[in-house]
Amino acid sequence: MKTALGRELPDFIAGYGEVKPFQGVSSGSKLRTRKAVALTSVFPDEKKVFKDLEEVLDKLQIRDGMTISFHHHLRNGDYVLNMVMEALAKRGLKDLTVAASSIFPIHEPLVKHIENQVVTGIAANYISGPVAEAISEGKLKKPALMQTHGGRARALESGDLQVDVAFLAAPAADSYGNINGVQGKSACGTLGYAVADAEYAARTVAITDNLVAYPACPIEISQIYVDYVVQVESIGDPGGIVSGTTKITKDPVALKIAKLAAEVIKASGLLKDGMSFQTGAGGTSLAVAAELAKVMRRDHVTGSFAAGGITGYLVEMLQEGLFRTLFDVQCFDLKAVESYRDDVRHQFMSASMYGNPHTKGAVVNNLDIMILGATEIDLDFNVNVTTGSNGVIMGGSGGHSDTAAGAKLALVVTNLLKARLPIIKDQVMTVTTPGESIDVVVTERGIAVNPQRADLIETLSKTKLPLLTIGELKALAEKITGLPKPVPTSEEIVAVVEYRDGTVIDVVRKVL
C-alpha cells in the first residue's frame, strides 16, 4: 500500500501490527472515543507511601510483556527511567515495552536491556543518543514506535497505547500523590507530558525526592490519578534540562536566516496585535524570536500568547509585555521553571491540550506563526527531523507535525548546506512532517514558498525578498556540493513513524 505521499508500506508490520497509511493532514477520522479506565479505590485506612522502590515493585507485580511509561521533563538529567529499568532487570523480567515521551543520551543503560531482551519495544516522540543508534542497528526486537507529542496523548487517551504502569518523576509529592514540578531540588517546571500517563495508565506511581506535607501546593497532577508514592534520594539533575542550545545564535549565516524569516512574517500580515507564536529552542529559531521582538517593540504589537516548550527568552518577552500569556508544556531552561512557578500569566498545558488532534480543540490550532527546523526537506516540502544524513535515528517529531498542522504560517528555517551536504533532496529519507503543512522554507541563499500557498507567493513577490522555487534552491546547493550519495538500507524496519492521527506516515529501515 502507499501513503498519500507515495511512500510504500507493508500491510502488516511484525511487532507493530496492521498498518493504516497516512492519507493527508485532515483525513483522519473525526469519530474518536476515550477509553474507559479500570478504577482502583483507596479507602480511608490505606496508605499510598512506600519506603523504597523495591517495596512498590512488589506491590505492582509487573509481569513479562507489560508496558511501562515515563515522562521526559528532566530531559538529559532524568534518573527515574534508568533507576526503574535496572530494578526490573534485576527481577528477571523480559519483553517489556518502554513508552517514554522522549529518550535522551542519559538513557544509555537502556541499550543493555535491549540487548538482553528485558526491553523489546519502545514508543517515544523523540529518541537521541545511544538508544537511537541501537534501534537503527536493529538491536530492538520490535520496531520502535515514533509518535508526535499530540499523537502520544491521543494514543493514550484512545487506548491505542495501553500502559500498565506509569512512573512519574515528581519534583514534589505529598503522601496522597498530589504532585508538582516547581518545588524541590529537582524542580523542572511544567509536567505537561505526564498528564495522559497519570490519567490513563492502569497504575500510576509518583517517584519523588521531595516528599512534602499534605496537601502539596500547587497541585499539578491530582491524587485521584496516583496509586502509590515512593521517595528516593534523587530523581534527576535539573541542570540536564538545558540539553542542547537555548541561546540565540551568534553565527552570521544563521542571523541572516533569522532576519529573512522575520521579514517573511512581517510581510505575511500576521505580525499584529493578538498574534500567537511558537519557536523551538535552537539558536536560529531563537534568533527569529529576537528579530520579531524588535519589530513588536517598534510597532507596539502585543501578542496573545507564545507556546510550546518555553525558554528564558520567551519569558523575557512575556515580562516585557510583548505577549499576554505563555502556554507551557515543558520548560527548556531554569529561567522558564522560575517563571512558571512565580507568574500566573505563565500557564500550564498538557500534551493533549497542546497538540492532540482528537480533542475539542488543541492549542496548536490557534497558532499564527510556527518556526521549525529540519534535517532534510524535499521538493514536495516534506520535512525530516527523525533521521540524520547517515540514516540513523537522531530525533523525532516531538511537536513538529502538531504545530505545522495547526499554524497559519509554518516556516522552516535552515542553512542550505549542513556539514557540506545539501539540505534539500528529491525525497527526504524519512518523512516526519508532510509538505502540505509546511508553508515556507527560509535559507541564507533564498526563500521558497509552497506552491499550495499562492496567496503567500503573491504577497511576498511584492517585496524585495529573494524568492526562489524549492527546485532552484536544491540546484543551487548541489552546484556547491555535488549530488550526495544515497544511504543504503536493508528491508528490515527498525521504526514506525506515526502521524499525529495514528496513521503511518513512514518507516525507518536498518542502515547497512
Strand order of the largest sheet: 3-12-11-8-4-5-6-7-26-27
Task: Bin the strand percentage.
Answer: 15-25%
- Give the integer mean of the pLDDT values: 96
The end-to-end distance, rounded to whole angstroms, is: 24 Å
CATH superfamily of the largest domain: Glutaconate Coenzyme A-transferase
- Biggest β-sheet description: 10 strands, mixed
Total strand segments: 27
Q: Using the alpha-carbon principal axes, give the shape.
A: globular
Low-confidence stretches: none
Structural class: alpha/beta
Domain count: the total is 2
Radius of gyration: 22 Å
* CATH fold naming of the largest domain: Glutaconate Coenzyme A-transferase
Q: Which CATH C-level class of the largest domain is it? A: Alpha Beta
Number of helices: 14
CATH architecture type of the largest domain = 3-Layer(aba) Sandwich
Approximate helicity band: 25-40%
Characterize the structure shown.
This protein has 512 residues and is of the alpha/beta class. It folds into two domains: 194 residues, Glutaconate Coenzyme A-transferase (3-Layer(aba) Sandwich), CATH 3.40.1080; 235 residues, Glutaconate Coenzyme A-transferase. The chain is 25% helix and 22% strand. It has a ten-stranded mixed sheet. A hairpin with a 3-residue loop joins β1 and β2. It starts with 11 loop residues before the first strand and ends with a strand.
